[in-house]
Amino acid sequence: MKIHEYQAAELFRRYGVRVPEGKDAATAQEAGQAARALGAGPYVIKVQVHSGGRGKAGGVKFAETAEEAAQKAGEILGMTLVTKQTGPQGRVVRRVLVSRAMKIAREYYVSLTVDGARERVVMIASPAGGMEIEETAKEAPEKIHTMEIDPYLGLTVYQAREMGKKLGFSQDEIKQFVPLCQGLYRLFVEKDCSLVEVNPLAVDAEGNLVAADAKVNLDDNALFRHPDIAAMRDVNEEEPRETEASKYDLNYIGLDGNIGCMVNGAGLAMATMDIIQSCGGSPANFLDVGGSATAEKVAGAFSILLSDAKVEGIFINIFGGIMRCDIIAEGVVEAARKLEVKVPLVVRLEGTNAEAGKKILSESGLNITAAEDMADGARKACRLVKEARA
Ligand code: GDP
Ligand code: MN
After folding, report:
1. What is the DSSP letter of 273?
2. Does position 151 have pLDDT exceeding 90, yes or no?
3. What is the value of pTM for the model shown?
4. Which residue lies with its CA nearest to atom 11 of ligand 1?
């Protein structure tokens, strides 16, 4: 799960990491009030969307007075911001963060993430922070330093000092950098993060180290341990179908194709997508209903496929083990009672209670094309979609 900068900044505060004073606002009026509450300007107004690269896309504005802050916020609220990370459709700006603007002397980059290959949390840092970090990574990778963190020792003072030296910090700056790194690391571990990133970590005119931007991504599988963080979720930033799928605890990811897939098991789901592709079709989604789905969950999954305007055909590919084929059939019929099935529906049921499942489907009155096996099902789905188009 991703959260907004203003929420990540609040977490930074809780872990003793210095961030600029500020408040989020959803209207121009609120932005003006937030600025007045901060005292004298200048202020920085930043769009709050789940994307980086806001600065380059015009999502970071400066204002001298509270009136100007309100006006600038009014200009960006409601607009669609297109950044390098959003794709061409962009993101609608529903909220801004109004902070006291700092005089930034130097910009650094610091992050913590999990390196799967090393099986460690790593700290990545660079003296060339700011909006050009991607270019630095490509053109001057020697300016980016990586350090593995031992899970038993945690991020040690020694390591943080070493990193501080690599960044060229003065003694006084290192004194601030060490607890800052430790605060970020504690946050990373305690809240089950997948990424904590500060870019830029700014040194201001008085020599203070301040996190001028805050980014925190969380491990969805650990969210149940952190209700305070789960409450930070912003469904406006998510794909609506993926939000709906998460209500049913389904593994669903929307894709660009036109054949909706409902499969049990992640491996079979991926194989199904591959075989559709090799038959000349294109999957509209990855969907694993899991091993112990109820009819209600299956109905939810099928409704999500039916509600997708991209979907021109559906392929249900089930290999029943613990998952029973009759449960799948019940769920499909239940969903089809509420939503009309206007697209070709190909079903392959194999394994536990396959015969019972087929019987439920054939008695339902639904127009179903039965498939012998997976390859046959994929071929039929692709052919029917093509025929429906012609
Ligand atoms: P991003 O582009 O989405 O990463 O958004 P950031 O929050 O990092 O802002 C983009 C850039 O704006 C930063 O790299 C800074 O150079 C600049 N910036 C952000 N806040 C301040 C501030 O308070 N004062 C000054 N002078 N610059 C800022
Ligand atoms: Mn940034």
Report:
1. H
2. yes
3. 0.82
4. 55
